[in-house]
Amino acid sequence: MNTFALPALLAGALSLLTSLPSQADPTFIADLDITSFDGTEIDANLYIPDTQAPTSGYPTVLFTNSWVLDKNQYLAQAKALAEHGYLVMSYSTRGFGASGGTVDVTGANTVADARVLIDWLEANYPVGNLGLAGISYGAGTSLVVAAADPRVDAVAALSGWSDIVEGLYPNETVNLVWGTLLTLTAFNLDPYVDTIWSNLRSGTDIDSVYNFAAPRSALSYVDALNTNGTAVLMSNNFADYLFKPNSMTQLYSLLDGPKKLMLNPGTHAIGEILGGNEGHIWATSFRWFDHYLKGEANGIDSEPKVDMAVRISNKQEQFDDFPVTDKSTRYYLHPRLSYFNNASMETDTYSGWGWNNEFHGGADTKAGTGIPLLSDILEGFGVPVYTDMKGINGYYAIEYNSPLHWSSFRIRGTPTLDMWIVPSKPEVQLQVHLYDTDALGWGRLITHAPYTLRNATVGQAQKVSLELFTTSYDVPAGHVVTLAIDTEGSIYQKPADTHYEITVPYRRDRQSVLTIPHL
């Protein structure tokens, strides 16, 4: 591991680029209407370097817009790249901006549009190595297009997805706030997308959801990306509860070619749009293109592959690969005496008499993720989500406290929970939170994950296994780690019937275990 501090001049990636002497002022074409394969007009703009193209052609970047934004989203970045010899096109995907058609969520038509734009660039300009880049919708689309088109040499996918199901249906739990926000803000949405969202909300024809997601998710195209040898850079944020880091770390682990993973504080796209993380995201993306498109020997290919910023402190760390550590602590869940007591989690297995604890659905508790979106945005700038752990209602939740940590507990990676429960209804929901709790009982959220059981066997003990969202967090000395579990979350859709009971059985042959990776 190598820990480093970014200098103050990296307040944004643009400040890094504009501090360098530009080659010449580029030519800007503000409006291009390019006819796609089916006659749909795609709206684009173009920066052309005011320098002679290299013999191999201009290094070229194609920027894809985020959801509801358009071709003008990346004007500053595109101009900065063009000033340093890049041919840069930005475009509005179909259904957004002034482009025609309807939004198909990186469907076959949107992928075909991008390939037509590459054709157009090659027909009109000397195109050399080609890169794709985008934030959010632009990131997920760039990955799928790169898999479909071997002409793409490098990708910078920022706050994107590799699995749509994980974004909108994590652990079979409807991501209500984010899904509603997306569907309501796309005014030219393909009607079929509305049908898919309706099916997800109602829990009907879930197979249609998976069939919709698979061809739109980069995890379906790992073999193609590996065959193409695409150099893939990915950046995601710890408190991004739309596109969690987990599926991107999975994609990263499956890629054989050049790859880099950046994990940052904050919520969806906030670091990329507002220049958070001290500009490290964009600065690294430009260096990625400089090496893999321009051929510059800037060392990024030999640096550690994983950059992680510690939550709250925003300290940058580098690691050779992901997972970043093979060290972990296993905490075994032990029972509480009553609703008025906290349970414990110990490094020793539970070896007592058979015991049960219960908690109930029907109410949210203070064991939550704060104000949806706002709390997650603030976290990216070092403002944590706090809650009074003493105020969590033991009838509707259960808390497990670890032993006191006498030194800093440096969590790095993806905690997992294997837990035995007995549900009283076929459909129940767990909202699982990990907190850093101080001596006064104030907790700071480390990570969380939802889990919904559907068609569960009522009254029968069953083990649920889940990954919490990948994180990087330092628990200070003198604090404990708290596992807080309730049944409702502010951003997730709850079951139609919330009047249920969850029993946690403690048996020598049924150990419930929280595993936390750490340095």
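(the above was protein one; protein two follows)
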Amino acid sequence: MKLLFTFLFIFSAILFPQQKATLSGFIRDKGNGESLPFANVLIKDLKIGAATNIEGYFAIPNIPAGKFQVQVSLLGYQTFSFTINTEEKKNIIQNIFLVDQSVQVGEVVISAEREEEKHATQTGRIVMQAKDVASIPTIGEADVFRALQMMPGVKAVSEISSGLNVRGGSSDQNLILLDGTVVYNPSHLFGFFSTFNNDAIKDIDLMKGGFPAEYGGRLSSVLNVTNIDGDRVTTHGKASLSLLSTRLTGEGPLGNGSWFLSGRRTYFDQVIKFVGLDTGDDALPLYYFYDANLKLNQNLSENDKLSLVSYFGQDNLDWGLGDNELSLNMRWGNRTNALKWTHVFSQTLFSNFTASYSFYKAKTLMDFGGFKLGQDNTVDDYSLRSDIDFFWTNEHLLKLGVWWSQYKVTYSEHGDGAPLVIETRPSQFSLYAQDEWTINERWITQFGLRFEYQDLSKSIQWGPRFNARYNLDEYSQIKFATGLYYQFLNAVSAGTENGFSPFDIWIPINNKMKPSRSIDFVLGYETRFFEALTISAETYYKKFYDVLQFKREFLTTTEIELDKLFYYGTGRSYGIELFAQKKIGNLTGTAGYTLAWTYRTFPELNNGMEFMPKYDRRHDITVTGSYQLTDDWKFGMVFTFATGQSYTRGSARYDLIAHGSTFPITLPGPLYNHRLSPYHRLDFSVTKHFTALGVEGNWYVQIYNVYNRRNVWFKQFNNLKNPPQITDVKLLPMIPTVGCDFSF
């Protein structure tokens, strides 16, 4: 009965609004009409305000009668002020266009950033724009994943990696969203490129832990990437040419909206062929990828917007070593399509409705001197999602939502024996509710609860979430977060213990399995006491339950139960992250240090003893710097140092005699009982701005691995020799590249 009265009260507040006034509207970029999330709208005299959501919408209800000045601020934009008179008008709809602040210096930018942080409750949050990613030196082109790897608590296993490890979690424990649609393979090989083309990106929002109830289905983090809508004012484009890739982008107005299209293609394969490194015992793989982003937007009315978002990408790799000793052929890629309807029911009730389709496919064929093994994995994900923001009062922002997904997941394996084929069709339903409560100027809390159900396992789970922020003063804040998270769909590595995974296999749980789950606790401190410098420290502890480890034995039967493919275990991770960032002035950059521990325990592995998986890194230091020498010349650098990965070292060699043949075998020691040598690398870049024949652009020279440090990828054991020969398989040498970006 109490619940019924609560709903009646909420809907009566919607249908019969109070006599006090409400200010609402969208905030957009004046130059191109793009919506601007995370902007702050403040009525200073009343000390009330709101931040725009991901669509750039805000609402401030319950404004008393009178004349008030409203200030709108966002880092990188000029502050905009206007006056409202609530005595004359109760329902004020004001759409605001901000002007880009080309030089980010002065009190305007500093105060905007402070105001933004005073109202954010999320711990471990990293918010970037495409220009922030582009400012970090890298190889080939600016990349989201490389930029995120510069942040404390976020690392890839190696330079040749297919995912990020966040605070002790495996790569599949990250929820990766592209305009609200799940992406199952978020990166391209070598770690140089991610699925996300920086030319297509508007905003990047990473939550490393303690993420709110509106997100679920993963244990470790949420990465939400929003693509550019497209310029609503003028038609233009840009292109980029380098030794490694080519990109082409165009955008412009379309009817009462906009269009955006961007594509790229790498040519590692052509470079390797040209220099003759595709044959022999030390042959490099012939690898390339291509992808494209499309986004169409139409404003159907002042309160309705329809968006079509599409992505497709394909990776191709062919690798041959020695004289028919090993050949590897891989094809994998993503397809996503989403139709999103944004509707404003009233000034205080904002909604998004999304229908999406995500497809992932990976296919591998390996030939070990005549012994062939093939693997295929596909995920079809059909989803419907609804999210509602209700600006109830100035103290309470309510969010409600539902998410339904129907999956088709297939896995097949074929070799000399009978083929194995697994196909499952699970469906999953989630709903959430959360309330962000501004208690006073110092205290802001967020309570949330998420319900999740998966039909194969008949599992019903409830995940409470809690975030809190306490403003110590104008410059400093303390944050705390905790939450319970569940995962029903897992990607398990089908690769070797030496560190190379051809691809990850996505498999849902069934009625004989429990969902993986985690609980974390995060405590953080942040200060901007020094105007140009942000300093933060966070500590965390996370516990994992029912995590999966794939059994690596070759499967030779078609009659196998899904739950018998895995070991089941627990884990824990904890650490502290220190971070400093300077965004203002000619010299900008970041410095981060992570001290962390990650453990896993499986009763059937390692004699049941706890071990540190390969993504455990005790110490990690990253320093980035960018110096604007003149208006035309810019220099950048990145230095990384990390404790070496753990790996399993052999303890003995023996001969296995079967069918009249002798097979030398290495007996492994305790799991991950040794570490590789420490990893470190320096990258450097020089950028020169130019204007020629009415075209503006940048020439750049980048040097990856300046001092040619050949870091170790993994240890290779040669059992054909007695004693076995152990060699270091090394990562990439120094790689210089040149390129040009230009607009037209």
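Reviewer note on protein two: Confidence is low (pLDDT under 50) at residues 1-9, 103-112, 554-559.
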